[in-house]
Design brief:
Rossmann fold, 5-stranded parallel sheet, 5-stranded mixed sheet, 10 helices, about 20% strand
Amino acid sequence: MTILLVDDREENLISLEEMLADNNRVFLKARSGNEALKLTLKTDDIGLILLDVQMPGMDGFEVAQLLKSNNRTKEISIIFVTALNKDERYALKGFDSGAVDFLQKPLDINITRAKVKVFEQLYFYQQDLRATIDQKNTINKQLERFTYTVAHDVKSPLSGIASTLEIMEEDQRVMQYPDLARFMHLMVDASQHLTAMIESILDYSRKTNTELPNEDVDVHELVLQIAHLLFPPPDVTIRIEDHLPVIRTRKFKLQQVFQNLISNAIKYLDKPSGTITIGCKEDEPGFYRFYVKDDGPGIDEADQLRIFKLFETTGKQSSTEESSTGIGLNIIKILVEEQGGKISVESAPGKGSCFWFQWAK
């Protein structure tokens, strides 16, 4: 970490540097407020400033106020070093100027080192957090590009299939057989719905979050459509408890969450028959708490946090030949957290799972 020491007396700067010297630290020194401002603006990695309050010309309060008013420097931690009495009014002025702490002259070596150590740890925590956010943003962009590419490549053949099915549905030979006509109608509905979904995915991939419109979404009707078009096998019953609300949100995102959770419940059913239950409860102010509950194989406690991480799977075999990529639940977690909500799972091996997620009203 780079630490900027600001004091108008050279001997104080030398003393501070010797007191705080460490292999992980680099020191810059300034003997005036103007010099401190120039050094801070041209140095990108300053993590802490020890700033003398009483300096000729521009004092420490003025320097701190200018630094906090600049977007490039406003996040830097500032400790005021002062020989003045630290009464309440003086302290308030310092905190209003942007200080995070005070050191009283003459400096106590142990207290000074301890306080700087705390801010050094905070600086590295912030660096780690920024790196994690950058990594997450990179992964999100990669997934968005992947989604766009797949959706674009699927669109043309899917449109061809939908057009062919529509022609077949109107064929007199098909109409002669009621069961065949009914199944053909279901296939046409599914292909049209998939085509619309592909268009939505392409539209979503082209736009930022701020460009995607909010709309009134009947969640009950949305879940019914998803349940119908996932074509659950005859031994799977999907039921909705009570009536799900109408909320104003981005429909495509909420659809992704429900579709993934219901699809997983169907895919991992390990019994001759099963029931999937969808419901909603009032949660903390501003949120609904939806759930998707199944009576499938359940999830080991050790896996319950891990499954929401990218590319993590439980290793359980699905009831179909599909394999898990470990992407779906991570995407759901991101979508839920974008709303300011949380997602969790309650489960026990052999007793099924209940996935809960919050969604903003």
